[in-house]
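Researcher: Structure prediction, please.
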Amino acid sequence: MSLSMKRTSLWAMARRNLGRNRRRTALTLASIAFGVFLSVVSMGAQDRNWQEMIDLAARMGGGHVTVQHADYLDTPSLSRTVPDADALAAVLAREPGVERVAVRIAGQLMLSTARESHGAAFLAFDPSVEDSASLAFLEAVSDGEVFADGNRTGIVLGARLARNLGAGVGDRVVYTTTGRDGGIVSGLGRVTGLLRTGSPSADAGTVLLPLAPAREVLGYGPGEASQVAVFVGDHRRADTVAERLAEWLAQRPGVAAAAAVPWHETRPGLASFVAMKVGGGVIMIAVIGLMVAAGIFNTVFVSVMERLREFGIMMALGFSPAKLFRLVVYESAWLGLAGLALAGLITTGPYIYLNRKGIDMSGYVGNSPTDISGIAMASELKFGIYPENLVRIVVLAFVVVVLAGIYPAWRAGRVQPAESIRAG
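Model: Predicted structure follows.
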């Protein structure tokens, strides 16, 4: 008999052995399938939720990668600028992996009305170039509208900020900030719209301004800005794109003072929160894996101990310890394959539903939305796992099941024929 035929017969024997105690096998398969189901759903919730939060943060700030003055991150100042940001943006838009770029000015200012004064963060952008795909604030305007291109006095305020100032649509406000040369500069704006993002901190401290008038007030030159926001298709590629852009910038003397900074450096609070949650999710999946492994180990070990006399007879008939070892390992492998098949059956339907419909969390959030680093968590939880994470879960589940059978397999190979037959 050839080696391949022997291996095939061992595979077939291992598969038949699983049918000896069908109830125990069914319970084991159910535990594998349920463990994989929980892992996929848990990881799917994390992948989709954090992806959406990071993308939203990029659309509310400097993109997935922010090109800015090399010293801006450590010492933010409106005097630290990118001189020819418009031309730079046109070049960066053609770089591989870059889907979109936007030229902006970001900083701090003081807003005043006849009754109140409040500080806020402002973002100046070109309304003729940007839309909600690059600037999430544009889809959060609930009262009034965003200022049109050419409107030199238009200004949009966060709804809470407007309430604190006692201002509404159509009212005039004065904003004061530090100009490019370090002096105090002021501008006059008329409120065209109010923002309701769902983030309390954003709604209480956000101001949108038109880019061209902001340049004039700040004393910027034509094309000058404080940042170029770079957007990529997958936030996980932000580091790679940032490194490539940094090398590109370093080779050009005109923009050598600029730096490409990935989102997790410009928003360290959000990055830390996501890392903590992802770490917790990985630990939970590891615990699930250990529980599944314990169940598999118990099943296979009990099966081996019940068949010691049988193994002794098989060895007396010519089975080698290595063959018995492989037989039990093959039984574990069959359990893994059948368990994964069952997991696919019970996971596919719920996953598709959760991916398309999600879970409405508004009842839990209520009127107090969760705010992470100025980003409101979505009230609807949808699921979407990265393909590579799905592959990792499937491979890990199979490996765990096989490893759980290693010791019982070794125990089977150590059977002494005479003792086991006599004991039986």
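Model: The longest strand covers residues 98-112.
Researcher: Thanks, that helps.
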